[in-house]
Amino acid sequence: MLNEWLMRSIALETIETTIRAGQSGGMIQLNDTSTLLAFLKTRKSASAKAMTGPGPTPSQISEILNIAVRAPDHGKLSPWRFILFEGAARAKVGETFRSRWQVLHPEHGADSLNFQAGLFTRAPLVVAVVSTAAQHAKIPVWEQQMSAAAVCFNMELAAQALGFDVQWQTDWVAYDDVAKAAMGIKIAEQVAGLIYIGKSAVPLEDRPRPDVAALTTHWGA
To answer: How far is CA 87 from the centre of its chain?
Structure first.
């Protein structure tokens, strides 16, 4: 019931925003892949809460991952790895999420528990990008972690370029040791991102962007 309510709320909000934008002449095509610059200028994440299928094929997944690893990686350490959740695996790991959430929040009812159990079933494919950053004689851990973030964004761009909708999340399961263990992630490793890949069930909605001029200074000026 909670998922249905969220879907209805997102759909109504998106419709209202689309109408307002259309009245003001402000509609743009999001994730416009007509040119590389057009795509980068209109790139927009979807909401995993409003995602459905189909997901990428095995060959498309391979292509997405191969593009993802073409990220900056100081020292060629490859300080990251991937865990794919597809099909029945999404619900199976979700049962651990449900049990763990019940331990953490015993006051929560069935709707909340069902929502946590369904975290990964919201999209056909969820990719956990795991940062394996470790102490190194020359490469700071921070740079290795930033490389994992770059991999996440490369993955998002690749999936969107193939026509899929994507959201890069973390959520509580990325920071809880029990949930991490259930996903096959070691305590010393970090979740750089949970990448949800599928098709949005509702039109994408843009959001206000930062004022670049307000964030930019010219040194020495």
So the answer is: 18
pTM value is 0.86
Cα angle, residue 11 at apex, residues 8 and 17 outer, rounded to 5°:
140
The β-bridge partners of 84 are 127
- In this predicted structure, what is the pLDDT of residue 31? 96
- What residues contact residue 113 under an 8 Å CB cut-off, 6+ apart? 98, 101, 102
Written as one string, the DSSP assignment of the chain is -HHHHHHHHHHHHHHHHHHHHHHHT----TT--SSHHHHHHH-----GGGEES----HHHHHHHHHHHT-S--TTS---EEEEEEETHHHHHHHHHHHHHHHHH-TT--HHHHHHHHTTGGGSSEEEEEEE-----SSS-HHHHHHHHHHHHHHHHHHHHHTT-EEEEE--GGGT-HHHHHHHT--TT-EEEEEEEEEEESS---------HHHH---TT-
Angle between helices 110-117 and 88-104 (to 10 degrees): 140
Tens-place pLDDT, residues 47-67: 999 999 999 999 999 999 999
Place of tokens 């994730």: 31
Residue 27's pLDDT is what?
63
Residue 196: burial class (beta carbons within 10 Å; 0-12, 13-18, 19+): buried
Name the token pair of 59.
């060959």
Check whether domain 28-203 has CATH 3.40.109.10, yes or no: yes
